[in-house]
Amino acid sequence: MKLPWKASIYLQREQLACMLHEPMAQFADRCASRWGDRERLNTLLVQDFASVPHCAFLYGVDCDAVELCDNLGPSGAVADHFGRDRSQRPYMPFRYRTLDHEALTDPDICLVYPPRPYPAGALIHQEDIGRILATMRALRFADQTFYLRAASINQLNGMVSLTLSCDGSHYMPYMEFLLQDVGFWL
After folding, report:
1. How many C-beta atoms surround the C-beta of residue 13 within 10 A?
2. Which residues does residue 151 pair with via DSSP β-bridges, in sequence order?
3. 3-state secondary structure of 74
4. In the predicted model, what is the mean pLDDT of residues 161-169?
5. Beta bridge partners of 169
């Protein structure tokens, strides 16, 4: 049976992740003692490059997503990438990441992300985040049959998303959400 294309892509990604997990974990352990030393890290990357299947390039980045070493490929080092800022790349989701309740309360997950100042371009003011969360909490425990099932806050575009048990989904500007009290939703 032929899989739908989305399922096929998902399966291929899962298979690739399984192939990469162990070699990358071992590789990361070997890199730890060399972290911050460009030449020693480059030497290790060249030496162990072949141990990572389907790899085009290897490099390490610091907490600000700036390259700590050269890009290393099958033919060796590409030196002009040292110090390159990769933070805006789509595979470096520092500006937008989705964390659910479990991730936010599990230190092994949420502390993986480096501390960042509140985004300067965020449309939701930092002082309003607590008010939004408090309102969401009140909606979660508002009633036995009517309650908040899921929610998200997008600081950058100023939008709040709500999924309510009896009223479907709502996507609205955060100020509109804050202007409504819990009674409005009941």
Report:
1. 10
2. 162
3. coil
4. 84
5. 163
Rounded Cα distance, 8 and 74, in Å? 29
DSSP lists the bridge partners of residue 160 as 153, 172
Do residues 146 and 165 make contact, with C-beta atoms less than 8 angstroms apart? yes
Within 13 Å of residue 133, how many CA atoms lie on the same side as its CB? 7
C-alpha to C-alpha distance for 23 and 35, rounded to whole angstroms: 18
- pLDDT-derived band at 134 (thresholds 50, 70, 90) equals very high
**SS3 of residue 140 by DSSP:** helix
Three-state DSSP at 150 gives strand
pLDDT of residue 92: 64
Q: Is 151 helix (H, G, I), strand (E, B) or coil?
A: strand
For residue 172, the cross-strand partners are 160
CB neighbourhood size of 89 (10 A) = 12
Q: Which residue has the higher pLDDT, 90 or 129?
A: 129
Whether the CB-CB separation of 46 and 74 falls below 8 Å is answered with no
Distances (CA, A) of 112 to 75, 153, 170: 32, 20, 31
- Tokens, residue 20: 């990469």
Whose CA is closest to 170, among 183, 186, 152, 156?
A: 152
Distance CA(180)–CA(139), nearest Å, equals: 11
Burial of 183 (0-12, 13-18, 19+ CB in 10 A): exposed
